[in-house]
Amino acid sequence: MLDAAAERLVAQGYTATTLREIAADIGIKAGSIYHHFESKEDLFIEVFSRGIEVMVDAFVDVDTAMNGCDRESDRLEAHVRAHLGALFEHGSFTAAHVTAFFTAPEEIRSAIVPLRDDYEHRWNALLADVLPELDSARLPIARLFLFGAMNTTIEWFDPTGDLSLDGLANLITVQFLEGVHALNLQRSTR
Amino acid sequence: MLDAAAERLVAQGYTATTLREIAADIGIKAGSIYHHFESKEDLFIEVFSRGIEVMVDAFVDVDTAMNGCDRESDRLEAHVRAHLGALFEHGSFTAAHVTAFFTAPEEIRSAIVPLRDDYEHRWNALLADVLPELDSARLPIARLFLFGAMNTTIEWFDPTGDLSLDGLANLITVQFLEGVHALNLQRSTR
DNA sequence: GCACCTACCTAACGTTTGTTAGGTTCGCGG
DNA sequence: CCGCGAACCTAACAAACGTTAGGTAGGTGC
Q1: Which of A160, B77, B94, B95 has the least CB density, counted as fewest CB within 10 Å?
Q2: Any atom of strand C under 7 A from CB of B46?
Q3: Dist. CA B179–CA A180, nearest whole Å
Q4: Is the CB of A185 less than 7 A from some atom of nucleic acid strand C?
């Protein structure tokens, strides 16, 4: 049922997604949803939360697996790969979060923001490790650049096509790292 | 009235935006909208179309102004600046298009896609000029990277803050160009 | 066998939505 | 002064929405 809700979210956004539709998708009636959730809001708060949960879990897994890694760029690439994996390989929750979060009403968003902040902080810490030369004020902007590159892939990337998720992760990581590197050079030689 | 519709779109998405709200915003009643448009669909097709119009106009302006420019990177930066200008300086149409296009129903989207394709083709041609060494199969992907970087700025960039639109355009352009350059090096030395 | 809980259904409620038919106001051209 | 069209309003329509009250079937524990 949460799965069905997530898939509808991806396809239609929040307001266009009906409880009656979700119920029909899993073969029950709309009223029965209220046995499991108090309201439509409640249901979708759970869906969005799981979307972040999947991302955080993937992040933590990489963090422990890459513990003794000395090449920082490899560590970053592994995390990019994990984020893309959350988007394309672990159900629709993360995809629903990325595409439909901003279509949800304010009350839902504000309930989710603390979880989002947690995930963003993990990335900030990671980027501070990988790019120690980067001005700390520029760090959130760099993160937003990277998030933009990763999250927009959901609008065009086809996991069954020529380019693999590994390849895409490498593409994004290299492009990002070299871009940031070039920006630092430009600033210091001015 | 189109302005009001665009602003509501940015704030709430398609389905959550009511004809009664739009009417109230401009001081008329909902039924009166049908004197100017045949339906809600019709109204928002016009809004989304103008969003692209603003972008295309900005693109064409730069194209003619930068006609005799020999430094390709400057040409690209000017176009990036123009795209960001369309997003932040020319009303809410382009912003509405970028944020709310995917919240609109299929029938609206398919009516807009040809216009989108036109804009995307202009960028493909531009990138082919600026990056002649880039594999033509990789070109649409590079464009999507760049679009991702530019369009997600709408979720975090504050035009009244420390960073100017010119500065942001430079940031994005350098980051993009050096990233693509690095990718080509990596591929040719493998 | 009785009580109880979980999971679901039926049927309706009040509200909101896009939409429409018919009427009013106002300004311009002849 | 008359006619006409543009711009708007009123009032209502059917449909769809989230939500709720009350009821039913089946399983579990004692």
Answers
A1: A160
A2: no
A3: 8
A4: no
What average pLDDT does the structure give for chain A?
A: 91
Number of H helices, E strands in chain A: 8, 0
Measure the CA–CA gap between A27 and A47, rounded to whole angstroms: 19
C1’ D2 / CA A123, Å: 75
CA distance A90 to A38: 26
Tokens found for residue A53: 């949960």
Q: Which residues of A touch B148 (CB under 8 A)?
A: 148-149, 151-153
DSSP for A3-41 reads HHHHHHHHHH-TTT--HHHHHHHTTS-GGGGGGT-SSHH
Residue B70 is which amino acid? Answer: D
Nearest nucleic acid nucleotide to A28, CA to C1' distance: C8
Tokens of B13: 């998405």
DSSP B86: H
Asked whether residue B18's C-beta has any atom of DNA/RNA strand C within 7 A, the reply is yes
CB contact under 8 A, B152 and A152: yes
- Global pTM reads 0.88
pLDDT tier at B139, thresholds 50, 70, 90: confident
